[in-house]
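Shipment paperwork, digital attachment
Item: protein structure file
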Amino acid sequence: MKKISLYIIICLLVIMLRDNICYFYGNILGLFKLNNNYYDAIITLKDEEIENIKKDYTEFSNFNKRLDTINYNYKISKVIYKETYNTNKYKIEYGKKDGISNGLAIINEHGLVGKITDLDNTTSELTTLKDLEDISVVVNNSYGKLNYSYEDDIFIINDISNYDKVYINDKVYTSTYGTIKEKIYIGKVTKVENDTISKKVYVKSDVNFNKLNYLLIVGDFK
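Attachment content:
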């Protein structure tokens, strides 16, 4: 009799508290589900981090293999961040305390990337070649001024005489008359247009300005 009475009391309590019991049970299940999702997210982030480290290592290894071809004094640097989305300015490693100064050229394994236009004690500002104006360049024995055309998405050399010999696939370098260190490779001629007095020479750079990572600061350090 006592057992039956106890069962009746338990049943009544379950009925009276069923909403609270369901709420508590639901929270317990939600907690386990949240924990599972949390750990799944952590594992995913770790996998992505490992993959990024692998890519970074591969890129640096490929970059390092080409250093034997560089004939300048250099420091290996790395992009820290792009200053804004719609600009061609980057913060890179090293500054005044490392002997860096304004005007030093920045290159990668594909050619001239730009130059340092500002700096503090520990970092420097890189302005890419796209935003530098009237860079003095040489093609064969002909000198001109290089600018980037956003409209045509290509570099253009002006001020080369129609009498000068410039051909497709000729290599373009910085000249001794400019502010950037001379004899740094820029790219190849892809097209030549003769005008009334001078030529318009189109130059293709192999540098991917949208994907900059490891760089070389070249020049004479203090």
